[in-house]
Design brief:
The complex is a heterodimer of chains A (336) and B (362). With 336 residues, chain A is an alpha/beta fold. Chain A has helices at 13-23, 39-49, 78-87, 101-108, 126-136, 175-191, 289-306, 318-328; strands at 4-9, 29-35, 53-54, 67-70, 90-93, 116-118, 145-151, 195-206, 209-220, 230-237, 245-249, 254-258, 265-267, 277-279. Chain A folds into two domains: 4-121 and 292-309, NAD(P)-binding Rossmann-like Domain (Rossmann fold, 3-Layer(aba) Sandwich); 123-285 and 319-328, Dihydrodipicolinate Reductase, domain 2 (2-Layer Sandwich). Chain A contains eight helices and 14 strands. In chain A, a hairpin with a 4-residue loop joins strand 11 and strand 12 (254-258). The radius of gyration of chain A is 20 Å and the shape is globular. Chain B folds into two domains: 2-159 and 185-219 and 317-333, NAD(P)-binding Rossmann-like Domain (Rossmann fold), CATH 3.40.50.720; 248-304. Chain B contains twelve helices and eleven strands. Chain B has helices spanning 11-23, 39-43, 59-63, 79-96, 126-145, 163-173, 191-203, 221-231, 248-265, 267-277, 282-304, 330-333; strands at 2-6, 27-32, 49-50, 68-71, 102-108, 148-154, 156-158, 177-180, 188-190, 210-213, 238-241. Chain B is elongated. The chains are: A alpha/beta (336), B alpha/beta (362). Chain A binds chain B through residues 153-162, 164-165, 204, 206-207, 209, 211, 238-241, 271-274, 336, and chain B through 7, 9-11, 14, 32-37, 39-40, 42-43, 52, 73-74, 76-77, 161, 166, 173-176, 349-350.
Amino acid sequence: MKRLSIGIVGAGEITRRAHLPVLTNTPNVQIAWLYDHRPESVLTLARAYRLEALHSLAPEALPACDIALLAIPVDARGDYLRHFSRQGTAVFCEKPFAMSAAEHLLLAEQFAPHALGCGFMRRFFRSTMLLRRIVAEGIFGSLLRMDISEGNRSKGSGVDSSFLDDPRLGASRGVLADLGSHTIDMALYVSGASAFEVRSHTLVLDGAVDRKVTAQVTLQGASSSPSRSIELNYGASWLDRQDNRIRLIFPHAIVWSDLSVSADVYVGSPENPRDNLLLTSEDVGARTYNQAFFLEWRNFLEGFRAQRESLVSARSALLTTSLVESLLNTETALPN
Amino acid sequence: MKIAIIGANGQVGAELCLMLAAKGSLELVPICRNRSGSAFLRWQGIACRHGRAADPKDAPRLLADCDIIVNSSLASGSPAQIRRIEDQIAQNIFACSKRSAIIIHFSTQSVYGDPRPGHWIRWRNPYGRAKLATERRVRTAQRRYGKAAYILRLGHVCGPMQQITHDIRTDIRAKRVIFPGQNHSSNTVYTFAIVAAITQIIRGGVKPDTYDLMNSPPWGWREVYEYEAQAVDTPLSAAVVASGPRSAPVAVLAPMLRVAAALISAEPVRNAVAKIFAYVPDRTNTRALAWWYKRRARSEISALNAAPAPPQHLAWLPNGVHFFPADQPTMELMPSGTPDATVRKDLKSWPPDLPDAAAGPT
């Protein structure tokens, strides 16, 4: 099997803590180079992993590779995507993929479906896979409603400055694009919905930055019952503690799970833990973040090799971008 | 009087800021490194200053006009980074504050080492070691700059916004509280007691020193759970399981036995034993197998009927050698009413940032 070379743009936390440890343990993969515009960050990280470090280069000057990982803020990716598309290099982007559906479509059209991926790694959580299967196979009947909310008061940020505070990267700031896009994607992925309608939503804005979002959305075209609609109650917050669970309400059962990577799936109610039944399956799914990133990469690499669209293709995340965009629309939002 | 809280967006810092803002007797200067971090406080209507207290260029504009400086920060990163940052913050607090400034530095009970009972040596974890090293730096700086410094070694911090309190309340509501037979000292300190200690220090009469700051008088875990059950208006329903102190020989032998058991159960060892048994008499084989079957059955049956065990921290050792001389019992400081009493209702969100300190240290 041919060894695939991967170039990495971005030497931030997600690269340091997730992509590099996983890719260095992935068979038939070689990390060709690591690039960041900050020399100190890239040199330190590249030295730790014994990689070639690159900095202060234009996208056109980056060496060739089979796949490029773009682990940089969404607003900074444009030049790289255009360059790699011209080169015929496949690209895997961290989430969110784009800030508008139009931009998402425009970018996706420049690549073959198997050659453009987006890192919604929660799709590979064991709990997510089981919940999706329960909905798709109609094990408890048709899904009526889904409640999902995530977040807590932001505590110690752990960093001196964040791209979230960088006014040049204004469009990508906020809880919805950052934390919230994961749960939006999870809701859409689990339900298998193909369309949505936002009934109401509220945004708590700190200047131009959304810090808390709540929404009521109707999902349509779900995998189990395409003709029925599903009510989605959604919340994401950096300001206060949320339920941090996903609940699927079926006609005669509630199935729920918390949103951690190691979460189990139960039938019953989280308020009465002793009365719950534990659900499990033999499917291989992630119970740690390294496993989730590994399964995500494996799926994308297999798809790339077979020229087959992967479960994390950019195209599969279009509805997620579209719903995030709709919820960020302050003109239709209710005041906080 | 101006009071700066470094690490104001942290778990403890944020709750202290809300409580101090509600008291209104001090001019509050919360300090956060970035606007993402300060979002909660600003949402709650509390204006902040932004910058790095660890940076000698930032520190004067953050601290120079403050009369009291509370260091509630928690450095993160590699052990070397943590040591460097804690060092810089401690240094800057003393170097960049007013000559008359009062410094209050939060440390931790982890400086006392492993809290589990039955250990002959209480090894410190890296966090405890780092905090102890910072305490030394604070004392060195205190001698050098001649400023009043109080090191408060906080116990488990409880309060409406603290994770431990949330977990306790969740267990109480779900009726899954299990206590060990003995009511151990909890080493807890409520945020109300921390605010009271700060106020008492500002009032004067407490000698600058290193203190253990816990509830006064210390609360056992049952008092903590009883208080929280009242706070969430749920009767406390708890199972009690027998527990006895481990003897010293058990404490020493237990880790050795665990290592031995792991070695014996390793596949190469099992294969080697099986090979040896091929050459011993049948009767010995039969007896060895019977021993093994009995042992395995006993272990599996006891796992089936395993009694629920209380969380390990409920049996942790009591700490404290030099307690803060609180002038009021903690119970008298506790509010009655809703659990989220500290969250402000009449808030005006997103105030403008506080202006920087105009002058350098005076």
